[in-house]
Amino acid sequence: MQSVLALLGLFVGLALAGCTHLNDLPVGSVIPLESSAVVESEAVVVAPFSPNQTPGNDYRIGAGDVLYVNVQGKPELGSPSGNGQGVSGSRVDGKGNIHLPLVGAVSVAGLTVDAAATAVQAAFSTYLNAPWVVLEVEEYKSQPLYLLGQFRAAGTYYMERPLTLLQGIALGGGLLDSANLRRARLIRGDKTLAVDVYEMLTSGGMLANVWLLPGDTLFVPDDNDQNVFVFGAVNKPGVVHMPNGNLTLTQALAAALPNETRGDFGLIRIIRSHSATRGELMVVDMNQVLKGRTLPFRLAEGDIVYVPRSGIGSWNEALAEILPSLQTFSAILQPFVQVKFLTED
Question: Which residue, 296, 228, 258, 216, is CA-closest to 35?
Fold first, then answer.
């Protein structure tokens, strides 16, 4: 702890040494800061799902649903009641049909409850004079939603009405205290969307609060392994934990005990992975942060921080120095970085 405090003291000293002219400013002066210390960035952003249209409020019947059908005055023509034995109601089969006495198969998949009742009524009209049909959904089983990870009640749920992503989380009883709110994932078919639940809840950023579709999977990991990795001109290379998922570059460097005599703080390299094939390569001028000219640079979970020992030109040169240090942490180096390393001129 004392060494960390000493390093923080060093950073403060460097900052003051670099901006002594601020001492001449009157009390209460406001100095505008640049928004970021990033001097170079090469990003491939994970494309979010296109906002889907607001679905209608009426439930659409699908395969697996169980319907209750009653033909007024003709109970023998409606759905089986079960009577404590067998299946109660008429289950929609894989072809989207229910099967009823006298009329046989009636197609109902994709219809609203009212439209399905009209279809059943039309089928019985061939045999009965002005039949009166009542139809209700007895079991909702056609629109599954899979909630995995740090939910209070994880499992498979079936949507009875249109739900947004946040409403889907509520369906699982909310999230545990151990949930990593910044690293949730929405899996839809062969696509995966990174979801920052924390931002939605605290900043109102609702772009990712999309309408859920049948078959969607929501996965929320735990926060036990929220770390960054610091290598290069530091005396304590390796893992730095992120308390509650919050850590600045200054804090990470202080924890790794940087070698101020050999490190080049103007060209700190950061590798940020968004997925196995997409990420961001950044160069951060830490000197600007230390001089109070920029806002603190916040790290993201899994960031790899490299403090070069001297000025480095291309990313290829930087990665050539980083790779040997990562051998013991090979799992954290995403393939997109390897592709960059192999293809850069």
Answer: 296
Strands (E), the chain: 38-43, 66-71, 90-91, 97-100, 104-107, 133-139, 144-149, 155-158, 184-188, 191-195, 217-220, 227-232, 238-241, 268-273, 279-284, 304-307
Q: Which helix (H) or strand (E) holds 99?
A: strand 97-100
How far, in whole angstroms, is CA 187 from its chain's centroid?
9
Q: How far apart, in whole angstroms, are the C-alpha atoms of residue 63 and residue 104?
A: 17
- Amino acid identity, residue 94? G
285 HSE (CA, 13 A, CB side): 13
In one-letter notation, the amino acid at residue 248 is T
* Lowest-confidence pick of 23-32, 120-129, 335-344: 335-344
Give domain limits for the chain.
2-45+225-343, 66-139, 144-220
Q: Are strands 155-158 and 144-149 parallel, antiparallel or unpaired?
A: antiparallel
Domain 66-139 falls under CATH 3.30.1950.10 = yes
pLDDT tens digits for range 129-172:
999 999 999 999 999 999 999 999 999 999 999 999 999 999 99
Task: Choose the CATH number for 144-220 among 3.40.50.2300, 3.10.560.10, 3.40.190.10, 1.20.1560.10.
Answer: 3.10.560.10
pLDDT tens sequence across 81-91: 765 555 679 99
Q: Looking at residue 43, what is its pLDDT?
A: 53
Residue 265: exposure state from Cβ atoms within 10 A (0-12, 13-18, ≥19): buried
In DSSP terms, 235 is beta-bridged to: none
